[in-house]
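It is worth pausing here to work through a concrete case rather than discussing structure prediction in the abstract. The textbook approach is simple: state the sequence, then state the predicted structure, then interpret. We follow exactly that order.
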Amino acid sequence: MTHPFDWDSAFLALAWMAGAGVATWLASLALRNVSIVDSLWAVMITLGAWVYALAAPQTGPRETLVLLLASLWMIRLSGYITWRNWGHGEDHRYQAIRARNQPHFEFKSLYLVFGLQAALGWIVAWPLLAALAGTQPLGFLDLLGAGLWLLGIAFEGIADQQLARFKADPANAGRVMDRGLWRFSRHPNYFGEFCVWWGVWLVALAASGAWTIVSPLLMTVLLLKVSGVALLEQDIGERRPAYRDYIARTSAFFPWPPRPANAAGPTNRESR
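Step two, the predicted structure:
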């Protein structure tokens, strides 16, 4: 059987997520850097799952599985983003948002950046909450979902590690990263995140949470059309001509063997 989804606990989770957003916004005022919201994303979603689990406990193997994998995902993603961004100031994407929303961006950022992240994060977290409501024994869908979830964490982690190591080597200055997983996808880290949320949804589906499919669909749209691939590549061909060759031979998202290069030439003299 499945325990009814507890909307009171879900809204309590939203309140805690919003509170985390406000606290991080206050920190951003002192730092003059709203980029710290990127480190908050995974923390906020996992906080929502833990609050829901504590408010509407359903002790069982699925609850343990969901909280364990969500925490693993959070530690990996938030830890990496914090390490990557440490000491680099505000990301250029947020600098552009700041410039477009003057005057008083400091106050506008509360809802334009942090409030929006909390609202989106809550919707994205719905499969986690629905899965936590399930009380039936683990089944095939749970195992399939957990496997896809773990694959996504690993895929994203390996891609991030490969890119970080590539950028740390001075010999790669001015080159496009097209090795390892990046040889088969221009955005393997985003593909890993895609796998995570479709895996989460499969676990929710096993707990009769089919309705939460809005979450992985939303994440797919965000990754492909909003804050992911589309945003990063909207003018990259103009700014970095060598990247056009990379685009021509490499799948944008789903890993696929690269197409043959149209012409030989220097190896991708642009930095990713």
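Step three, interpretation. The longest helix spans residues 140-168. Residues 138-272 form one domain.
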